[in-house]
Amino acid sequence: MSDNLVDIENLRIAFRTDEGTYAEAVRGVSFSLGREKLGIVGESGSGKSLSGRALLGVLPPYAKMSVDRMQFDGIDLRTASPKLRRSLRGGRMGMILQDPKFSLNPVMTVGSQIVEAIRIGNHHISGTDAKKQALGTLEAVHIREPERVFALYPHELSGGMGQRVMIAMMVVREPDLLIADEPTSALDVTVRTQVLSILDELVTRRGMGLIFISHDLRLVSKFCDRVIVMYAGRIVETLWADRLEQATHPYTRGLLSCLPSIDGALDPLPTLQREDSWRGADL
Predict the structure, then answer these.
(1) Euclidean distance between CA atoms 100 and 280, whole angstroms
(2) How crowded is residue 277: how many other Cβ atoms within 10 Å of its Cβ?
(3) Sign of the CA dihedral 189, 193, 195, 200?
(4) What is the pLDDT of residue 9?
């Protein structure tokens, strides 16, 4: 039996085209995750978020998925019943989505949504205790005046505040696996550092596994333990985060060369060159 929290082998996700054929968006992705911080980087459309959604079981119904192995803590997710998958989602598995405007319920207050998340996993907790826990979580993600924010509706939140509320809803349950899809994209540098410290503390104290999906190579290299680089639905390279500069694949090298340096030359940044050969021999 594997000691990994997550094991995925040969994950493929395809979508039907107007011509009636299927176009693969994820092409044979395989990776494992321990009690660690795993970063997944790549440009938009590379299959990062789809891979995370497949693991959580929230792909759209029109997606066609196949996988040779998909396990979470010894549970075979391919054969797990819908009831078991629902109990895992939001409990032992959570996902912070990129845009809170489309994730938070617009007709429920922020507080009622966090309290609902708390009470789903603990039916015996009183409303008063659940509210106290929710307010404490809002404070933990550095929201000022948590009592006031508790009573607000999602449309009354700024983008950064909405993202912090989403993070609070996911971490309040202290899941075993958290998939964070660009969780800090709408946060300023100071708040981003504070939120990352919360996630880091959960991994260290709770022994949580974290999949951190991002476009920010520098952030991932400093925050994560390992980094997976994806291009056109494939994993092209896997590296230790602190050795990202030692990348050998031309796509990863291209991404690194496009990063600006404060003490670098004033010449225009290079343009990333893409090659069809990076996609794999079957294309």
Answers:
(1) 35
(2) 9
(3) positive
(4) 97
Phi/psi for 194 (5° steps) reads -65, -40
Question: Beta strand pairing status for 75-76 and 69-72?
Answer: antiparallel
Q: Any residues with CB less than 8 A from the CB of 138 and at least 6 apart, and which?
A: 110, 114, 146, 149, 150, 164, 165, 168
The per-residue DSSP string of 18-68 comes to TTS-EEEEEEEEEEEE-SSEEEEE--TTSSHHHHHHHHHT---TTEEEE-S
What's the mean per-residue pLDDT of the chain? 87
* Backbone conformation region of residue 20, classed left if phi is above 0, alpha if psi is from -120 to 50, else beta: left
pLDDT score, position 213: 94
Tokens of 267: 């010449």
- What DSSP state is assigned to residue 89? B
The reported pLDDT for the residue numbered 282 is: 39
Give me the pLDDT at residue 264, please.
64
205: which 2 tokens? Answer: 């104290």
Pairing type for strands 22-33 and 6-16 reads antiparallel
By CB atoms closer than 10 A (0-12, 13-18, 19+), residue 266 is: exposed
| Dihedral of alpha carbons 243, 220, 60, 73, sign | positive
Taking only the tens place, the pLDDT of each residue in 57-116 is 999 999 999 999 999 999 999 999 999 998 898 789 988 887 777 788 999 999 999 999
> What tokens were used for 3?
């000691």
How big is the CA angle at 238 (ends 241 and 176), to the nearest 5 degrees? 70
Evaluate if residue 281 carries a pLDDT over 60. Answer: no
Q: How far apart are CA 190 and CA 213, in angstroms?
A: 20
Distance of CA 115 to the CA centre of its chain: 22
Give me the phi and psi of 95, to 5 degrees please.
-140, 125
